[in-house]
Amino acid sequence: MRWCRTNHRLLVFTSIQSKEASEGIAYQWNYMVENHYGDCGMKAGSCSGRRESPPLDDRSRSLVLVNYFRSIPMKKLSCEDNSGNLMNMIYTCYGAAASRWANFVAVDYYKRSEGGGSFQAVDLLNAKLLCGCDDIHACVSGSTSGASTL
């Protein structure tokens, strides 16, 4: 019950369709769309859908997952991957997903970046989803930061 009192949530999805009926675990493709993972999902300016996923612009699925990690994890390159390149992919996938911001981001070595990295990406997405701003701090009541426009 501690999770309820502290307002924490755990989302569990499965890629095995039969588990939704038999075990009550949400079948991910009924609820989300997802871009390619691995090297195929890291092409600048392109955000193509994962083969198993419904099309990225399918608005009947309310959740969007953006993958941004290499097929073979490379710690040395993760600083670059998790910085400007990640932020660019978030904007690219926004367009591919029918102007919807990602609810989830999957990266390797999330603590490594040349700047704000994955934490900046999550702050941006939380701000976009919560109040339509570029900075999560702008969503705070009484903030002097203004809303952004695209």
TrEMBL record:
* Name of this chain's protein: Uncharacterized protein
* Biological process (GO), any one: lipid metabolic process
* MF terms in GO: phosphoric diester hydrolase activity
Q: Which InterPro entries match?
A: PI-PLC_domain, PLC-like_Pdiesterase_TIM-brl
Q: Output the superkingdom of the source species.
A: Eukaryota
What organism, scientifically named, is this protein from? Salix udensis
| Coiled coil residues, start to end | none
Enumerate the PANTHER family for this protein. Answer: F21F23.12 PROTEIN (PTHR13593:SF51), PTHR13593
